[in-house]
Amino acid sequence: MQLKKPIGASLAAATCGLLGALPAAPAAAQDAKDWDIESSLLYYGEDNDRVKDVSLDVAIRRALDEDRSFSINLTVDSLTGATPNGAVPTNDVQVFTGASGGKGYIVEPGEVPLDPTFLDTRIAASANWQQGLGEASRWNVGVSVSDEYDYFHAGANARFEHDFNLRITTAYLGIAYGQDDIKPVGGAPIGLTPMVALMDNGGGADEEPGDNDGYRDGGTSLSKDVTDLLVGVTQILSRRSLLELSYSYGKSDGYLTEPYKLLSVVDPVTGIPVPGPDGAPFLYLYEKRPDQRTKQSVFAEWRHAFDRDSMAVNFRYMTDDWDVTSETAEVRYRWNINERSYLEPHLRYYTQTAAEFYRTVLFADERLPRFASADYRLADLDAYTVGAKYGHLTDHGEFTVRLEYYQQDSNPSPGSAVGELANHELILPMSAAILQFGYRFKF
Amino acid sequence: MKRKLIAILALLAAAAGCTTVQPWERDLHARADMQPDQQDSAIDDHIYFSKEASSGGRGFAGGGCGCN
Fold first, then answer.
1. CA separation for the pair A409, A167 (Å, rounded)
2. Which one of A11, A13, A314, B5 has the fewest CB atoms closer than 10 angstroms to its CB?
3. A192-215 as b/e: b if 16+ CB within 10 A
């Protein structure tokens, strides 16, 4: 995912500039600086040896004059750890083909299958240009790219902002387009076909056209296009309060399937996975999602300044044509301890319904559905985040440290816990720690 | 949901009509702590995009990672 600038933030910054920002802190109290550098080092770690990410992010902003500025953002992510492959636990050992077709892995009885071969480095860069257009309008254009071992993204975005009503109201309109190329390791599996039992038969460079092993040709690159539209308004409600409202529409077309995710096919009475082809002990199918998705969301944020402190509350409602509906609520309270230090507690709650094709398991006696995925992220799930950020301003810049705890609980699809599956936890709850250090300075 | 949205828009329109915050009265809005943190927002969006089935809202819905 590219790290795009939130429009609200840019708007607020622009509004601030237009109003003639009043310095509120030592670092900001210096004369206006041309360069603004913001860096952060992030650690994200899930429990049970699941995904870990160390990420370095640097944003460079340069104001050329009152009307024109540009920014560049660079991110490097290093990802390791294990991730659920979609299959369910059994009373026996399970053996899976690795993503590369060469490295398999074994899962002990009773354990939720995790694919431990997850390892990637992601590099992302984006650049934006902002320019005034008359006294009350601004436009902003940007490009972005990101690259992973099996994934490449390129995108462009543009937005236009206009102030009304003595700048009490600002409306904005944005559009973004992205094209992603996906090149799964070993070739992309054909959805809802059996996982190949032989560990060295999973496509790859030696793939021959016409091989009947459940894989597309190893060299095939798949793609998807993502188009987003955003329209919103920021309204000053009073000397202390501001409300931002936005509506966004996003459409994805192309390969939206997770190539490394599986589904177990189980006996509808015993809950034991049925045997696979070619003598494989169990049958696993590769997942398959529709090749189109349309999302719509509304977002509202209210910000309020107290004499010393401030707070922000936001809410998002999202719905899509995969039947996922979600609600997100967040609150931040900024406690300005003194002129140089602040503490900002943060709470977030998230809930979503399952995608219509989400299935924790498939049953051997049913007709194969058109689409199916056991990816826990498409399940009925609730999540919350609790954390705080501490910031300290010096004469040269601002240090911040942020610590957060994220907890996620997913529910299996109704009727999944048949036979022996009733004795197992079908989806592991997940918790993660987020630790972020930041330093920002201007010169 | 449509009703909620219309109600919010109506409230906003009403608020816009009766707001008389003069430009010189906006010192609190200009305070640094009243501006959203762009970098934190981008990082959070990336994390939650990777772990949940939703995206977008504050900014573009995004995409561009093969997040597992």
1. 44
2. B5
3. bebbbbebebbbbeebeeebebbb
Q: Report the 10 Å Cβ neighbour count for B62.
A: 24
Secondary-structure percent of chain B, ordered helix, strand, coil, rounded to 5: 55, 0, 45
Provide the ipTM: 0.87
CA dist B57 to A151, A229, A251, Å? Answer: 24, 11, 14
d(CA B56, CA A228): 9
For the beta carbon of residue A384, count every other beta carbon within 10 angstroms: 15
Which residues of B fall within a CB distance of 8 Å from A297? 54, 56-57, 61
- Taking residue A17's Cβ as centre, other Cβ atoms within 10 Å add up to 17
**Both structure tokens of A36:** 């603004």
By the 8 A CB rule, do A311 and A334 touch?
A: yes
In one-letter notation, the amino acid at residue A92 is D
CB contact under 8 Å between A151 and B66, yes or no, is yes
- Cα–Cα distance between A361 and A372 in angstroms, integer? 9
- Other beta carbons within 10 angstroms of residue A66's beta carbon come to 10
Residues A10-21 pLDDT 10s: 434 433 333 333
Secondary structure element (H or E) that encloses residue A307, with its range: none
Structural element, H or E, at residue A360: none
Which residue among A168, A295, A406 sits closest to B21, beta carbon to beta carbon?
Answer: A168
Cβ-contact A54, A21 below 8 angstroms: no
- Exposure string of A139-169, with b = 16+ CB inside 10 Å and e = fewer, is ebebebbbebebbbbbbebebebebeeebbb
Chain A CB contacts of B68 below 8 Å: 51, 79, 83, 118, 258, 260
DSSP 3-state helix, strand, coil percentages of chain A (rounded to 5)? Answer: 5, 55, 40
Decide if A348 contacts A387 (C-beta within 8 A).
Answer: no
Q: Where are the domains of chain A?
A: 7-442
Q: In angstroms, rounded to a whole number, what is the distance separating the alpha carbons of residues A245 and A232?
A: 5
CA angle B60, A261, A51 (to 5 degrees): 70
Q: Which of B32, B52, B53 sits opposite A24 (nearest CB)?
A: B32
d(CA A48, CA A330): 27
Which of A:6-35 have CB within 8 Å of B?
6-10, 12-13, 15-16, 19-22, 24-25, 28
What is the tens place of the pLDDT at every residue in A224-282?
999 999 999 999 999 999 999 999 999 999 999 999 899 999 999 999 999 999 889 99
Q: What is the pTM of this model?
A: 0.88
Q: Mind giving me the DSSP string for A179-245?
A: EEEE--TT-PBPTTSBPPSSTT-S-STT--TT--SSB--TT--EEEEEEEEEEEEEEE-SSSEEEEE
DSSP conformation class of A12:
H
